[in-house]
Amino acid sequence: MSLLPSCQTLLLESRDGVLFITLNRPECRNAMSLEMVAELRAVLAAVNERRSIRALVLQGAGGHFCAGGDLKDMAGARARGNAAYRELNRAFGALLEEAQKVPQVLVCVLQGAVLGGGFGLACVSDIAIAEHSAQFGMPETSLGLLPAQIAPFVVRRIGLTQARRLALTAARFDGEQARQLGLVHFVENDATALQERLEQQVAQVLRCAPGANAQTKALLLASVDQPLGPLLDQAADDFAQAVGGEEGTEGTLAFVQKRQPSWAG
């Protein structure tokens, strides 16, 4: 924990290889201020090379995940003109890029408001667990704004057809509808079941080798937009290195010896 940045808008707790990151502005349903964006980016940068942290759990305080961008920041930027608005907006897009690419497994626990920027964060998670009563949506167009930074991530998550409908109607929907759209993987009826599902998923993540997970995640993300031949060539190189590497050697030896590998101990 000593290597992690000090935060005013986040609560950080490291436990058994998992870093729990709690958005902690419950008085405004954890609306994403510029300060919170900066702190989240700093935390992601700090853990990027720390293989001892194998999963990140992103959640919100006070029964809500995140109600989107903080409109107070927009009001504060008004006096500085369009350049300030652009800087404010683009900083959140950079956060989404970095969250998507972080080598650890990113788990989002979604309760209450999952709107705007919060919706975007859900779209870059590796595993998304929602409470059935959570409220999802992209309300930007109903405010005369654009979902400028989250739109590409929403399209990649649920497809262009559904993204168009949701963005152009500012529709709200619950956890079960989010599961049907492919936005979330699990929907639970209450906070207890949500916690149990989280523990189950984290336990499964910890069965996997951290380096192999990081490389596999990078391969999956690259498969979206990279040419197939060069991608498969690179994947073959990575596989060959993994077989003879520390994790590959330990994993295959553990299998032969009928024991758990060191990372799952």
TrEMBL record:
<dbReference type="InterPro" id="IPR029045">
    <property type="entry name" value="ClpP/crotonase-like_dom_sf"/>
</dbReference>
<dbReference type="InterPro" id="IPR001753">
    <property type="entry name" value="Enoyl-CoA_hydra/iso"/>
</dbReference>
<dbReference type="InterPro" id="IPR014748">
    <property type="entry name" value="Enoyl-CoA_hydra_C"/>
</dbReference>
<comment type="similarity">
    <text>Belongs to the enoyl-CoA hydratase/isomerase family.</text>
</comment>
<dbReference type="Pfam" id="PF00378">
    <property type="entry name" value="ECH_1"/>
</dbReference>
<protein>
    <submittedName>
        <fullName>Enoyl-CoA hydratase-related protein</fullName>
    </submittedName>
</protein>
<dbReference type="InterPro" id="IPR051683">
    <property type="entry name" value="Enoyl-CoA_Hydratase/Isomerase"/>
</dbReference>
